[in-house]
Amino acid sequence: MEKPTVSVNILGQEYKINCPKGHEAELTEAADYLNGQMQEIRNNGKIIGTEKVAIIAALNITHDMLSSRKYARSNEQQLRELTSQLDSALTHTNKVG
């Protein structure tokens, strides 16, 4: 099964990327996001060189992703605790009633 090739543009450079069938839009969205992040870093003027810009963008994106995961895990833990408290309260109410 042949994988589709998607053309993406990052900092004015075109790249042809193979991706799983049906994921072309996701790849394009990811490339657009990366391009935006890299343009923002480059426009700040403090970092020169595409490779350095790419590394800083990758670090920023990875940091955001890891922070989001920690936040999601914290929310999951809070939901489990609330569910447990609710179960206990309902059990207590059923025994009293």
TrEMBL record:
Coiled coil: none annotated. Keywords: Cell cycle, Cell division, Coiled coil, Cytoplasm, Septation. It is found in: Cytoplasm. One of its GO terms (biological process) is cell division. InterPro entries: Cell_div_ZapA-like, Cell_div_ZapA-like_sf, Cell_div_ZapA_N. The keyword Cytoplasm applies. Activator of cell division through the inhibition of FtsZ GTPase activity, therefore promoting FtsZ assembly into bundles of protofilaments necessary for the formation of the division Z ring. It is recruited early at mid-cell but it is not essential for cell division. Homodimer. Interacts with FtsZ. Belongs to the ZapA family. Type 1 subfamily. This is Cell division protein ZapA. It comes from Marinomonas phaeophyticola.
